């Protein structure tokens, strides 16, 4: 059975000291082990068969002195207090050992009552060290469990956010289809504008979040057509000036519709300004150059190309080649020239063959 007695390791080369200390301490209820040198003390501790609650360490010993053993003990066994034993002549050194981590020192000859008291004090100190260590360990475990919880929660939030994004995209698609339902000539137009816009953005090395925003915006760019009379949208022939002015309200109406939904707020400049011209002669704000939101400039190119290559009430579809010529012709006047170049050089128009 394991002993419940407190254990003391006496480290002293003096046989008389070993004997008197052993007898005295055992009488006082301690379990005692003796080492003749610092090295022997270290061997006992490393051997793990005697785990002392306190170590007595003589300063002057052969082989390994107490002064040499102390820093090793402090480093390897920081929770075991060390009491230095010293001759009167070594008092200064003894005081110095306390600075180096000894718990206390006793001057030989040591009175037994003083020895026992000092050891008891050292052991009480060890208990507080152990208690501290236990609390710190508990704290570390608590910290780890918190970190794990935060990690789990972050993951859950990420998944919820991804799900929300999918749902939003579904909603946006449904909204886009409502525009197309009103204007059968534009069937699939929003989806194609989305695909072309995304391809241009990928070639521009735009970051992922902005591309997502661009895709929503491209799908919704004409949402304001909901507010335009069908007679104007589907008119077979050219529009009167008044009708044209009404038609040209669709970017502003679109902005107004989506302004009510927080999620769509970042799309608003794209919706409002997808009909601006690079030279400032577009609508509704006559913005020019880079004052037009980059994503709106991208949607403008994609929208124009798809509109030209689709049949509309007032004209037949242009061939791909003719539409590319037109984009090149309006490079710098209507469109951002860099975007037209990207569109043509990377043959982005070819992605529509599947649609
Ligand atoms: Fe439009």
Overview of the molecule:
The protein has 355 residues and is of the alpha/beta class. The protein has two domains: 7-138, 3-Layer(aba) Sandwich (Rossmann fold), CATH 3.40.50; 183-354, Orthogonal Bundle (Hypothetical protein af1432). The protein has helices at residues 15-27, 38-47, 66-76, 91-99, 112-182, 189-203, 208-220, 230-233, 241-247, 250-258, 268-272, 294-308, 320-329, 337-345; strands at residues 7-11, 31-35, 54-58, 82-86, 104-107. The protein has a five-stranded parallel beta sheet with strand order 2-1-3-4-5, sandwiched between helices. Helix 1 (15-27) links the parallel strand 1 and strand 2. The longest helix has 71 residues, at 112-182. The site of fe (ii) ion has 5 residues, from loops.
Radius of gyration: 43 Å
Low-confidence stretches: none
Q: What's the shape?
A: rod-shaped
Beta strands, count: 5
What is the chain-wise order of helices and strands? EHEHEHEHEHHHHHHHHHH
The chain-level mean pLDDT equals 91
Architecture (CATH level 2) name of the largest domain:
Orthogonal Bundle
N-to-C CA distance = 84 Å
* CATH hierarchy, class of the largest domain: Mainly Alpha
| Largest beta-sheet details | 5 strands, parallel
């Amino acid at each position: 059975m394991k002993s419940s007695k407190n254990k003391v390791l006496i480290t002293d080369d003096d046989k008389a000291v070993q004997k008197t200390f052993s007898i005295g301490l055992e009488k006082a209820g301690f379990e005692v082990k003796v080492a003749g040198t610092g090295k022997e003390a270290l061997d006992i501790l490393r051997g793990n068969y005697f785990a002392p609650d306190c170590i007595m360490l003589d300063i002057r010993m052969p082989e390994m002195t107490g002064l040499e053993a102390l820093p090793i003990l402090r480093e390897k066994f920081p929770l075991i207090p060390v009491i230095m034993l010293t001759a009167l002549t070594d008092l200064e050194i003894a005081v110095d050992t306390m600075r180096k981590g000894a718990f206390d020192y006793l001057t030989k000859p040591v009175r037994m009552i003083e020895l026992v008291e000092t050891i008891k004090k050292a052991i009480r100190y060890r208990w507080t060290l152990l208690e501290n260590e236990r609390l710190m360990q508990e704290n570390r475990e608590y910290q780890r469990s918190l970190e794990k919880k935060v990690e789990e929660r972050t993951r859950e939030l990420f998944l919820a956010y991804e799900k929300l994004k999918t749902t939003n995209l579904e909603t946006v698609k449904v909204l886009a289809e409502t525009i197309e339902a009103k204007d059968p000539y534009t069937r699939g137009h929003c989806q194609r504008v989305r695909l072309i816009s995304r391809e241009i953005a990928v070639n521009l090395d735009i970051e992922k979040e902005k591309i997502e925003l661009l895709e929503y915006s491209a799908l919704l760019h004409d949402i304001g057509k909901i507010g335009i009379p069908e007679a104007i949208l589907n008119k077979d022939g050219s529009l009167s000036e008044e009708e044209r002015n009404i038609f040209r309200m669709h970017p502003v109406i679109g902005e107004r519709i989506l302004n009510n939904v927080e999620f769509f707020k970042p799309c608003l400049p794209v919706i409002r300004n997808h009909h601006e011209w690079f030279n400032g002669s577009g609508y509704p704000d006559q913005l020019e150059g880079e004052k037009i939101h980059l994503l709106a400039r991208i949607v403008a190119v994609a929208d124009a190309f798809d509109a030209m290559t689709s049949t509309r009430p007032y004209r037949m579809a242009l061939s791909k080649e003719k539409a590319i010529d037109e984009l090149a012709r309006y490079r710098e006047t209507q469109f951002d020239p860099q975007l037209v170049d990207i569109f043509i050089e990377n043959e982005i128009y070819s992605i529509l063959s599947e649609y």
